[in-house]
Amino acid sequence: MQLRADAARLRRRLIAASCALLTTSAARSEEAANPGVAGALTDWLLESALAYYHEDGRIQAIEPVVNVSKNYGDGGTLGLNLTFDSLSGSSPNGALPSRSPQTFASPSGKSLILSKHTYTTAPGDLPVDPHYHDQRFALGVDWTLPLTRLTRASFGGKLSYEDDFLSSSLSASIAHDFNEKNTTVLFGINDENDSLHPIGGAPVPLSDYELFEKTDHKSKNGTGLLLSVTQIMTRTWLAEFNVSLDRFSGYLNDPYKIISVIDASGNDVGYVYENRPDTRTRRSAYLENRVGWERASAALSLRYMTDTWGVHSDTVQLHLRWWNTERNKYLEPTVRWYRQTAADFYTPWIGDSVSPNEAYASADSRLGGFHALTYGVKYGIKLDDKLNREAAEINIRVEYYEQTVDHGLPGAGALQGLDLYPRLNAVLLQIGFDY
Amino acid sequence: MVPEAAADSLGGALDVEERTGNILATCFTAMASPCELLLHASDRAAAMELGTLVAAEAWRIERKFSRYRNDSVLAWIHRNRGAELQVDAETASLLDFASRCFELSDGLFDITSGILRRVWNFDGSSRIPDPAAVERLLPLIGFGKLSWQAPNLLLPAEMELDFGGIGKEYAVDRAYDLVAARRSEPFLVNFGGDLRANRSPANGPWQIGIERPDSDRDAALVLELERGALATSGDSRRFLLRDSVRYGHILNPQTGWPVAESPRSVTVAASSCTEAGLLSTLALLHGAQAQTFLEEQGARYWLLR
Fold it and tell me: Among A71, A293, B160, B263, which residue has the fewest nearby CB atoms (within 10 Å)?
């Protein structure tokens, strides 16, 4: 038995040695055989996509993405990533539906009484700000360079700009290959600095919505650590495990979210701005397995996340991909299941008898307990023959997302019979082109 | 194997010929072997274009690693014995590969053993070398005697390197990658019997005839290959015969003498030609144990004794 195991190990090592020879010399050989333009063109890659996202009766977004990366023969790469988001539509403001019409001010600089821009929500409807509009422009750069034959370093920077938000982050990582390049260990750090300039100012937490107590701009900072191990299990099976830790501190509120104040009979008597803790530490663990067959591949990933706000989440995702016999078209169905528990301070409303002065509270449904299912399918056509580029491909992706609130606190009195926790359905359509 | 005079005429003509089963073959000569690119359901223009690419790659690798040319990287290394050289990345990856093979085979696979050709000439005659002459060469053999830490190489005085045992298989894989990046329809790259195919043509798998070692014409067996690589090691026409003992041309680098009872030829299937060639060569070096070795490796193989 021992001999058999030794022999199997030798075979694996012979395979590894052959693979190392063939992969390390591939790029150079390609260049040598295609002097001039053809050789110069094969070392960069363009990935582009245009996505349209639509939430039922709420937000819609259009997002073009362009990724350009350049490969240097020595294992170094330089990547450039451009994203532009345009969001518009209706965004929930955090208040509950009510038996009577509710009027809110759009977050201009003015109080409700003075504001020219107000919106009114019909009885029974979830209050949403119908003028929600945002544009985001993001630019990312990352650079990987080989330090030794087995060690690589990466550096990255990212800038993201919105009308009321500016975020910049820097990252660095180092990766080392062990065990004949069958094992890769990566350690990364990340630092992010955000500055927030909410329209009309940042509200004082828990202040009365109608009193309109606002302050100047705010900031927050995040730091993250990542440790990842990637292991080639067999020639067709790759596994990755990583753990990450990140910590945010500063102004972590959503400046546009409010909470309904409800009296004992279930009627709304006013609104206050939300108040979240000013630090949040998240830990997560992630396991992914990828398996390939002759004309199919599968990727199964599991993620567990827990944070100091009391949110625990689980994600299970499965991607399958089938190729046709000519290997020039593929179909990739995806299913993703997500569940999270509510933050400790999540509350759909605040009772008027409770003095909320020192408490943390948010009615943001993204901090509530819910589960969500995403089903999607992607269809890709390789254009490598037609365009004479290995990476050339056009693809289309459709995803359907369905989110359901778990354990929503039942409403008493006047709240009875109202749909306090409407489902959220969304559709994503994406067209991509790689070259 | 290549006469000195022929070496300068590297390059040459490409012929496109039609074969049965809707196959176009682009044929040329490289590394002293008939080479071909087979395309299923192709037009002549594509066959010529891809064939040109494949031939250029074969000739490039031959020019770079040939031991018969004085403008090769190998000749440059040999001229600079005793000096520390910085080799290019492709040469470095081949040396890394040779180094791994030397370790994994416990010294059986050794690209410094070509020097034994000075005393062994497998011409079918009975001229067995003087054991003392073999003995004198042994100190000049052993990959471990090189100083090699990529990209720095120091080849000690009088030692020799020979990429002949890996060059052809490596060239097949390189050429395969070039074609695979441009074409998804079935194709097969064949350099003198070492070959690799991307997938089976629609009308059935590739039919590979393995030459019977003692006959020039009849294929001893026909293999069906859907995809992957085949490499064959062994050549029964290269031997010495003395006192009814047949001395095969596979030399043990540790003794300097032919490996006893090694098969006449071994063909191995693997996913890359480099891997298949490595397994078939190692099998021959295991002599009488060749079959056991291949069984232990879980290899698919065909062996002729």
Answer: A293
